[in-house]
Design brief:
Order of helices and strands of chain A: HHEHEEEEHEEHEEEHEHEHHHHEEHH
Low-confidence stretches of chain A: none
Number of strands of chain A: 14
Largest sheet of chain A: 10 strands, mixed
Low-confidence stretches of chain C: none
Largest interface: A-C, 62 and 59 residues
Radius of gyration of chain A: 30 Å
Radius of gyration of chain C: 29 Å
Number of helices of chain C: 15
Mean pLDDT of chain C: 90
Oligomer: heterotrimer
Strand content of chain C: 15-25%
Strand content of chain A: 15-25%
Structural class of chain A: alpha+beta
Helix content of chain A: 40-55%
Chains: A alpha+beta (about 400), B alpha/beta (about 230), C alpha+beta (about 375)
Helix content of chain C: 55-70%
Distance between the termini of chain C: 30 Å
Shape of chain A: elongated
Mean pLDDT of chain A: 86
Distance between the termini of chain A: 32 Å
Chain lengths: ~400, ~230, ~375
């Protein structure tokens, strides 16, 4: 009890004198805030990208590619093969047949709105059941493309990021002209970065004959995946890789996530070291400024422990403020910021919004507290070890 | 008779502290001849230090003229005053005012850095000054490693280093015990006698004033000549 | 220089404080060096790519192939000095994670048009004599510890052989180096005729690289090339290689702005830390500054002393930080080689860093120095 009371008393004395050391304390707070803001903002790139890639990844959607193809672009199926795949057991069936879509995946050159420079935007030819396969997709403006017509629907994110994809626009690719008849959303998932049309219209336009590149199949249940995969891999007429969409997208986004994580952590760690030195400075000068007070308290009979705790508390208090300010700043500036980057595995653009998640915010504050602890512990120990007489004589 | 090295004519100094007006010096006149050892005495607040600051070109009079070593200090710019101080005045302070980050010899060298002297010449000057004050063996000590009397000797050596026209001392013994103070006063008296240095010393210690050859009392901003000791 | 001792001693008035400030400056400039290397890595191509080269790609997108017969048509276009082609292979070496660029090219012409890739004459001779021969960049060979003579199996993705084994087995006949540090040394080149042999002569290639006679006529030549193929099933889009790579860098996103924002925040924080140190240090020695002025230091000299002290600290920290970055960067390279073919801090960025250090010193010392300059001697000496 006595210990606690003493600690409280010393801490209150310290925090009261904080305004007198405004300049130096503000420097520490800004230092913490700057590091945390950068840390949170950089990792929000990764989190936002992750959200897009994982948002569309459901457990009961399977994607079938030719064996050895790590992406749709390099996959290939004949019409015959897609019929076999669509007929496999484990697929959900509706009144109009299996809920599966055989698709084509190409990219088209469309200028980015922000820079006017060309970007690889995915153009997907889909089957009639595409929307049943992906229930999250919803036409929010205009209408669906009609089968057999050169009409496209555009994902909301793609329409925002790239120029000339607005409702009613006409697009000329090669010898054909396409009309944008609808805009769709897909709960923020990857599909929103794409342009969709009827696969059977895309085939002749890209001289693909009657071939496809992938089959998306809605499973009867997540557990049906095993049945479906085994049926296909056992079939001698096929050479395929079957993956759950969630696994597929995780693999697809791995390169970029790794890059951002490596760079983000590198930057964050190095910055944290710098900010910790700044904090050490602040706390050492805070202790120096209160040598007299601390010594007086010690002379009055206060123990060393409470002195340590009080100095640490101050440092952690500054770190907490810095962490909150930095996280808040990152949230205000970065969260929801729309951008696009190239996904190397699919060689096409993925539009996404930076996501400052609660986890990142908490991580930012925790990070600041670690810096605050490291910046406070040594000055605190020094204050506690200070000989009583020395502190009284100085000042 | 040669012209007085210090000529103060009808000098007024007014400080404004908020709404309050304080007339520190009121029409003060003073002549000091070359080679004099003058003590300025007076109660605190009488304007002793203010006068010393005016003589040293650290401050300017509100009105009147201060001419020292041929330079009209009341008209000079801050920059010219700085240059002039470097050449003509040596200051000795009550609290020594040595730079704690420099050793004794580096402290003494400080005013010499402002001259064109080479490093070797500066070293020679420093050695001479330290020898004069009897601290050759303490040259590489930091101020915190010296006693109060030793610190003041270093302070005097620094004041002497560039062979100034005038030595201005502000309570040079104010922070020292009687015995040490005596040593410092002996030193100042010797500098005055052997090298005919003009010394002006502010003090409120009658023992210190006794050593001067002329004593002036400052009272309410005006000078009162006292009988020479 | 005569004041150096004074500066130096003042800097160490509070050793711990100066040390921590110094270290945080070191860290800031270390980070600056790394970030500049990353930035350079992201847009290296833009800086190096020859203005004298044009790229002709399929108008719809670079993944669409172009007919091989275009080569002679492009070659006979006025203003064209030389033309070759390249085809993206996109195969997998052992694991998809081991990604690197593989291109099928015409060895002789390709090396002619890209003098940036330096290959010994013996290696080139071996390549011309070996149908399955391939050359790898120095960093790529290092990454997988390849030696000349090694057999390198690569699993195709797009280019499945029509007959025989599914895998392509290449023989490494040489390792090329870049003519400057900015040249990509992470690519893998093999012979296009070998590719055609495996997949059947499909008569198509990925894109064309055109060398112009006169780079100042780039627009004209590009238009002339595209005009020949207008309204054909495979229309083309021709741009300078530089413009192409710049657009490609834009596809990745605005990395430059992101990195510069980080640099800005880092320096803002460091400016406050260093400025605070200088302010504390000057405040502590108010009376000493008064003494200096009494002794005859002019106001300007005192201002100079404080500024010089701040600059000395910042430049010392800056130099150490930049040197540290230069030393550490090669160690980070293996970590990033898959993303950034070029990773080093360019000399221009290091010079800019040095300039930044001086600016940091001036900015952090500015206010304290101004305070020191304005200081009245009588005021300064009264405060004790």
């Amino acid at each position: 009890m006595r210990w606690l009371r003493e600690t409280l008393a010393v801490t209150v004395v310290n925090l009261r004198s904080l305004p007198q050391r405004m300049g130096s304390s503000a420097v520490a707070v800004v230092g913490f805030a700057g590091v945390v803001a950068v840390f949170v903002a950089v990792l929000s790139i990764s989190a936002g990208f992750q959200r897009v890639m994982a948002g569309g990844g459901s457990e009961d959607l399977a994607i079938v590619l030719r064996a050895g193809s790590d992406a749709e672009m390099s996959s290939f199926f004949s019409l015959e093969q897609t019929r076999i795949i669509e007929g496999a057991p484990g697929i959900l069936r509706s009144a109009s047949g299996p809920v599966a879509s055989s698709e084509l995946f190409v990219i088209v050159d469309v200028p980015k709105r922000s820079t006017g420079t060309g970007a690889n935007v995915p153009l997907r030819g889909v089957g009639p059941a595409a929307l049943e396969v992906r229930p999250e997709v919803e036409i929010v403006e205009g209408r669906r493309f009609r089968e057999g017509f050169q009409e496209v629907v555009v994902g909301r994110a793609a329409a925002n990021q790239f120029a000339g994809l607005d409702l009613g626009s006409r697009l000329r690719w090669g010898e054909a002209t396409w009309e944008v008849v609808g805009i769709f959303t897909a709960e923020g998932s990857l599909w929103e970065s794409e342009i969709w049309t009827d696969a059977r219209v895309l085939q002749p336009a890209y001289r693909r004959g009657s071939t496809f590149q992938s089959v998306y199949a809605r499973l009867a249940s997540p557990e049906a995946f095993g049945t479906f995969r085994d049926a296909l891999t056992a079939d001698p007429r096929l050479e395929v890789d079957v993956q759950r969409e969630s696994d597929y997208l995780r693999a697809q986004s791995e390169l970029l996530r790794t890059l951002v994580r490596v760079l983000g952590n590198l930057i964050a760690v190095v910055m944290a070291v710098g900010a910790t030195f700044g904090a050490l400075n602040t706390m050492y000068s805070a202790v120096a400024a209160r040598e007299r007070e601390i010594s007086t308290l010690r002379a009055l009979g206060f123990q060393g422990g409470p002195v340590v705790v009080s100095v640490l508390t101050e440092s952690l208090f500054l770190a907490l403020i810095g962490g909150l300010v930095g996280s808040g700043l990152a949230y205000a500036v970065a969260n929801g910021y729309q951008t696009a980057t190239i996904n190397w595995q699919s060689f096409s653009q993925v539009a996404f919004s930076l996501a400052v998640t609660p986890g990142l915010l908490a991580g930012g504050v925790a990070y600041a507290l670690v810096m605050g602890f490291l910046g406070g512990i040594f000055p605190a120990l020094r204050a506690a070890r200070m000989p009583v007489a020395l502190g009284l004589r100085r000042a | 008779m040669a012209e007085a090295v210090v000529q103060v004519r009808d000098v007024h100094k007014v400080y404004e502290r908020g709404a309050e007006r304080v007339d520190v010096l009121q029409g003060l006149d003073l002549d000091v001849e070359e080679g004099e050892f003058l003590a300025l005495m007076g109660p605190s607040g009488s304007g002793k230090t203010t006068l010393l600051n005016l003589l040293g070109g650290l401050d300017k009079p509100t009105s009147g003229r201060v001419v020292v070593a041929g330079q009209d200090l009341s008209r000079a710019s801050r920059r010219d005053l700085a240059r002039w101080r470097a050449r003509h005045v040596g200051f000795v302070f009550q609290f020594y005012n040595l730079l704690p980050v420099l050793t004794a010899d580096r402290n003494v060298e400080l005013p010499l850095l402002l001259t064109g002297l080479s490093r070797a010449k500066r070293k020679k000057h420093v050695a001479t000054a330290l020898e004069l004050v009897g601290l050759t063996d303490r040259a590489d000590h930091y101020p915190r490693e010296l006693s109060g009397g030793q610190e003041q000797r270093v302070g005097i050596a620094r004041a002497l280093a560039n062979d100034p026209t005038l030595l201005l001392c502000d309570e040079p013994t104010g922070d020292l015990d009687r015995e040490t103070a005596g040593g410092i006063l002996d030193l100042l008296a010797a500098l005055n006698e052997r090298f005919t240095k003009t010394v002006i010393m502010v003090t409120h210690d009658p023992l210190a004033a006794e050593r001067a050859r002329r004593v002036l009392h400052l009272d309410k901003g005006a000078l009162v000549e006292a009988a020479s000791a | 220089m005569r004041f150096f001792h004074l500066l130096w001693r003042n800097l160490f008035r509070r050793k711990v404080r100066t040390l921590f400030t110094f270290l945080s400056i070191v860290v800031a400039f270390f980070l600056f060096g790394i970030l500049m290397a990353i930035r350079h890595g992201f847009d290296y191509g833009v800086q190096i790519a020859g203005e004298s080269r044009l790229l002709t790609i399929h108008k719809i997108s670079i993944i669409q192939l172009l007919p091989i017969r275009y080569q002679s048509q492009i070659g006979s276009t006025p203003g064209v000095a030389n033309v070759t082609h390249a085809t993206w292979f996109g195969g997998v070496y052992q694991d998809p994670k081991n990604f690197f660029a593989q291109l099928a090219v015409e060895p002789e012409k390709y090396l002619e048009i890209y003098p940036d890739y330096v290959l010994s004459p013996e290696a080139e001779a071996r390549w011309l004599a070996t149908r399955t021969g391939a050359v790898a960049g120095r960093k790529l060979a290092q990454r997988f510890a390849w030696q000349v003579g090694d057999r390198i199996p690569i699993q195709p993705t797009f280019w499945r052989p029509t007959e025989g084994r599914d895998t392509y087995e290449f023989e490494l006949v040489g390792i090329y180096e870049g003519s400057t540090p900015d040249v990509d040394e992470t690519s893998f080149f093999f012979r296009q005729d070998y590719l055609m042999e495996r997949v059947g002569d499909i008569g198509q290639v990925g894109w064309y690289v055109v060398e112009m006679e006169d780079p100042s006529r780039a627009d004209e030549v590009a238009q002339a090339i595209d005009a020949q193929f207008a309204n054909s099933p495979a229309e083309t889009k021709t741009t300078t290689e530089r413009a192409f790579l710049r657009d490609f860098a834009e596809q990745v996103g605005n990395t430059g702005a992101i990195l510069m924002t980080i640099v800005g925040i880092v320096f803002f924080v460091i400016l406050l830390i260093a400025g605070n140190t200088m302010a504390q240090s000057v405040r502590e020695r108010t009376s000493e500054l008064g003494v200096l002025k009494t002794v005859g230091f002019t106001d300007r000299a005192v201002l100079g002393l404080v500024l010089a002290e701040a600059v000395l600290l910042a430049v010392a920290g800056g130099v150490v930080g930049l040197v540290l970055a230069v030393v550490v960067i090669p160690g980070l390279e293996p970590l990033l080689v898959a993303f950034l073919p070029v990773f080093y801090a360019p000399p221009a960025a290091l010079a800019a860093g040095l300039g930044l250090a001086v600016l940091l010193g001036l900015a952090s010392g500015g206010l304290p120095a101004w305070f020191a300059r304005r200081l009245q001697i009588t005021e300064a000496l009264r405060r004790r």
